[in-house]
Protein 1
Amino acid sequence: MTDYERELSALRARMSALNERIMGNLNEFITLSNRIGEVKDKMGLPHFDPVRESNMLKEVLDANPGPMPGDQMKTVFKAIFRASVEEMGMEKRARLEVNRLPGSRDKVIEVGGVAIGGGRPAIMGGPCSVESHEQMLETARGLKALGVPILRGGAFKPRTSPYSFQGLEEEGLKILRAVGDEVGMPVITEVISAHDVPLVAGYADILQVGTRNMFNYALLKELGRIRKPVMLKRGFMATMEEFVLAAEYIYVRGNHQVILCERGIRTFETWTRNTLDISSVPILKQETFLPVIVDVSHALGRKDVIKPIAHAALAAGADGLMFESHCNPASALSDNQQQLTLEEAAGLMDYLKKHLETM
Ligand code: PEP
Ligand code: MN
């Protein structure tokens, strides 16, 4: 045996012993982190805490005397942290402020004496677009008499075609506000750009984000700065996760009055305008503590099956419904196929009252 061979074999023996010590340390690490997981479960806290993880990494890197380079040390520790989180058998998704935790209370949003969430279904009805004072007043009076508490009406219309009616804009907001006040109904209307948020917030009780704008993060950030309820509609091509993250954009900026609205997603189906993803209702309620509304009109684009679908939405746990209704749908400037006449709206409300104890 040469000197080199002797040295190599001694170094290898030390390396094997070191491997064992590292293994012992890693097992101690996992035991400790499992215990932390148990304590966190008792406290209703999520296992994965990105802030704590990044602080621990920083501590390790600051204390590293070398010679292992910092980036390598970081890779190794990240792998260890990941393993511990996986070992706890836990969620890999980061915790969001809108996530439901054990013991979270359902969010209840009050607008003009109407509660959205936490009990009785909140019904929002009204025309697709605000067209005139007379049209709004006749529709609002009709709906109010049926027990529809919240009035909708679009003043800024995000139309697929630039040649379609784009809405009365501020004039429409004024009409909506005046009619809401006259009839005694809080009003909801859509805002389509970040720039218009202060204007729309000046008239509306609830600001709506339409399906085409769910990914408009500049708009969501602006809505996070106001202190008025926002109803965020699911993007027609958005996953539930993307939808919840969009809600987080608003919530995390301090506007905690966020309502989710499922309004159908785009699929290969052509017999309905969209495909109502009814499964999203209980899943969103499980993942978040926010109220969930189902817009049955834009989901279906047709009126003939609206009753059982509205029933299904509430049976699945929705906190309310939105539907379009117009005093004279034949003359409507937008979505005339799907807007209920006041008689049809009465039929829908009767049907729901008959089928649901909570109505
Ligand atoms: C609306 O509610 O007026 C509307 C345009 O709906 P959506 O954004 O769901 O298409
Ligand atoms: Mn419409």
Protein 2
Amino acid sequence: MTTRRPMIAGNWKMYKTCPEAEETAGALVQKISDAAGVDIMIAPPATALTTVSRILRDTPVDLGAQNLFWEDEGAYTGEVSGPMLVSAGCRYVIIGHSERRQYFGETDETVNRKITAALAAGLIPVICVGETESERDADKTFSILDKQMENGLKRLTADAFKPALIAYEPVWAIGTGRTATPEQAQEVHARLRSFLEKRFGAETAEATRILYGGSVKPENISELMALPDIDGALVGGASLKPDTFSEIIHYKSAS
Ligand code: PGA
């Protein structure tokens, strides 16, 4: 059986100017220098990527972007490409976050193009899926997630998909203070893993890390991480403060 290395990722969303990002990243690397057995990533806004990249050099914290466009270059005002993110020091890129789907018109089809472009650029995509509250209430959670996975991962081979991570983020739990119960999260993660097994085979399904996201905080990280199919967390609000994010990263010493 594969042991999946835990991953704690911070999504800073549209917070922090360059000086603020520099200060936060600097404080974080001090606090987590003793963290072992866990991959760590922070995704600052695009403007702060190069600044934060300098701070993260030779530390255990990797850099991620929050979005990319699927063409490498061209007349696409306002967009940033995979090779550009790589040149700014990124190793990861978050794709298909529910806020991108909700406010910026992203669909499973654009998510698919972005995943393909990220992998081609050598970036590790963190692919976000999740149902809204009304979809959950209407018992559509599994069918929505199946559709997001099916269409988002279209045409990808198991080999191409291999580096990718999945993040399950129930939309009703993002920034609301409402976390999915451990049972709800585990049930969905197991379902996502069985989807991956059908789609890519047992070996890939077993090796793929599936993160949970939605109001993760120091108080609930340990119980989430104790579940068999939860391999890490994608943290929004609680990743903005170095103290709080460091506590989440050190969940092992707390449990
Ligand atoms: P939250 O955000 O931790 O603030 O709920 C999570 C996310 O949107 O990735």
